[in-house]
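User: I'm putting together a teaching handout on how sequence relates to shape, and I'd like one worked example. Could you take Peptidase from Streptomyces inusitatus, show the sequence you're using, and then write out its predicted structure as tokens right after it?

Assistant: Happy to. First the sequence, then the structure tokens directly below it.
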Amino acid sequence: MQIHTRRLPGQPAVPGAADDAGPWAELAPVIDGARRRAARDGDRQPDTAHLLHSLVEADPGVRAALGSRVVRVLGYLVQRSIGYGLRWRGSVEESGAPSGVRERGKGAEASRWSPSALAALDAAVGRARSRGDARVAGADLLAALAADSGCRAVEVLRRAGVDAEQLGARIGAV
């Protein structure tokens, strides 16, 4: 069952709302995968690490962008469910989320995502729009995740030996 939510003009759709198929059509498997992963891990909300995990599994371009570090990234992401991410359980991830996103994150549909994940999703939509595309691509979401130096996805990247700042710059140049 999908929930309809009302948005302010110009406010990007929150993945999961019935009317958001447009920008997220290409990444629907990533969005669904992040939700399933969060539920399976017993987490209250999908966060940036859930998004990164689904993105790496679903998007060959993202795997290529990570290069030889992709195996280490996946290793850390898999470990999350068996202990590595336990310290995150029960806490809300809101590292790079501006207060407006944190406030919006209290709504019915948006509360299903961590504030940091919402900020990354918003940034991915903005990145797609800035290049004149109505749909968000995997590279848009990866660049948005890499831009938040305090988020869980960047912590995973860092531990796997990926320089998130360089990754973001490399993706931005494409």
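A couple of points you could highlight for students: The chain has ten helices and no strands. The chain has one domain: 21-172.
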